[in-house]
Specification:
Elements (H helix, E strand, L loop, with lengths): L1 E6 L6 H15 L3 E6 L15 E4 L12 H16 L5 E5 L1 H11 L6 E4 L11 H10 L5 E4 L5 H7 L4 E4 L23 E6 L8 H11 L6 E6 L5 H10 L6 E5 L4 H5 L4 E4 L8 H8 L4 E4 L5 H4 L7 E3 L4 H12 L2 H10 L3 H4 L2 H24 L1
Helix pairs in contact: 1-14, 2-3, 3-4, 6-11
Length: about 375
């Protein structure tokens, strides 16, 4: 099958990581795959895999505000031209606004479009103008793909009569660098790791406050928050106000997260909400004991509470601190959870993910053929 996969960029982020995995897997299974990005100003963080064509729509660079109608029209027309030039059997689009733009670009074509949400839309709302466009255009999609079953009712209400499906993100097996060594930014002693974009959603402010509650009793433990984003300054200010300078570091994003995770003693996911929670999945596959908020949605699917990790009530800072103390003070319990954690890869492995996508692709291709015949 000839596929075009559309995403705003291949910069750092969970959706971009999954796009890399999906495109590589489908190409490996014999499909012709092009990854097409909209914003040419954002450099690739994730390299496009061998066997996958890389293309950029020749539209405007940078952020296009909704009211910049000429720039938005230019962007939509560039996207349409790029897709039509490849004559795909199916277009797969990732992430809300990009989904809207892709559907707008291809609305009058006969090319089926599967749009994928990569955040929980019940927790994260688009600005009203984009929300209205999404509601108007999603019914024209061939399928709306969510990450978890609990968000399917939203998809059905958003796109009545359209095929909806839940396909969780894939959990790849970890790949370590041969020269992997303990990161210098870990310092001495044991380390707690949080990982993700430095944005409000990820709750790193909650993690810092939870660590501050227990840090005096655990002088041999430090905290590292791995990632980059617009909240860096605010988080660094909070760290300093909490008296955690020298105990909590924010060293930036890493292109080799598995090499960091293999030297981590405890992973904490402090997100207010998630689409799925790839950082948590990656930590579990590396055999790291994990504590996670049981936030909407994703962590509760991966973590079997008390078996391969601990779940605590969402946004409950005190409960998070207590769970961290429980594992920081009990090596045996921490090791027991860590030993079971990699089993998550069997439940959410890449091949299962690709099987589900290929089944959906075959279904959509059959529907498109029947529509053309009629």
């Amino acid at each position: 099958m000839n596929l075009v996969c559309v995403i705003n960029s291949m910069g750092g982020g969970g959706a971009e990581r999954v796009m890399s995995i999906l495109s590589e897997g489908l190409a490996r299974r014999g499909h012709s795959v092009t990854v097409l990005t909209l914003d040419p100003s954002i450099p690739d963080f994730y390299p496009v895999p061998p066997g996958v064509e890389r293309s950029k729509a020749e539209g405007p660079s940078g952020d296009c505000r909704w009211y910049q109608f000429a720039r938005q029209r230019e962007r939509v027309l560039a996207l349409r031209a790029s897709v039509l030039a490849r004559g795909p059997d199916l277009v797969i689009s990732f992430v809300d606004v990009t989904n809207v733009l892709t559907l707008a670009a291809l609305k009058s074509s006969a090319i089926p479009v599967a749009v994928c949400e990569h955040i929980n839309p019940l927790q994260y709302r688009l600005p009203p103008h984009w929300e209205l466009l999404r509601r108007l255009l999603y019914p024209s999609a061939a399928a709306v793909v969510m990450l978890t079953a609990d968000t399917l009712p939203w998809a059905r209400s958003m796109a009545r009569g359209t095929r909806v499906a839940a396909i969780p993100d894939p959990v790849p097996a970890p790949v370590f660098s041969p020269e992997s060594q303990r990161p210098e930014f870990f310092g001495k002693g044991r380390n707690i790791l949080g990982m993700g974009r430095l944005i409000e959603q990820k709750g790193f402010d909650i993690l810092l406050r939870a660590f501050a509650k227990l840090s005096q009793g655990f002088q041999d433990w430090n905290l590292t928050i791995l990632g980059e984003g617009p909240r860096r300054g605010a988080l660094e200010d909070l760290r300093d106000r909490l008296g955690l300078a020298g105990r909590a570091s924010l060293p930036g994003a890493s292109r080799a997260p598995y090499d960091v995770l293999r030297h981590t003693d405890l992973f904490v996911l402090s997100s207010r909400f998630e689409g799925f929670g790839m950082a948590l999945a990656e930590a579990m596959t590396c055999g790291v004991a994990c504590v996670s908020f049981d936030c909407p949605s994703g962590p509760g699917l991966m973590v079997r509470n008390g078996v391969d990790g601990l779940l605590v009530p969402p946004k409950d800072e005190a409960a998070l601190a207590r769970a961290m103390v429980l594992l920081m003070s009990d090596d045996r319990r921490r090791e027991e959870l860590a030993a079971r954690a990699p089993e998550v890869e069997r439940r959410f492995g890449i091949e299962k993910y690709l099987d589900e996508w290929e089944a959906l692709m075959a279904e959509l291709a059959g529907s498109a053929a029947r529509s053309r015949a009629s």
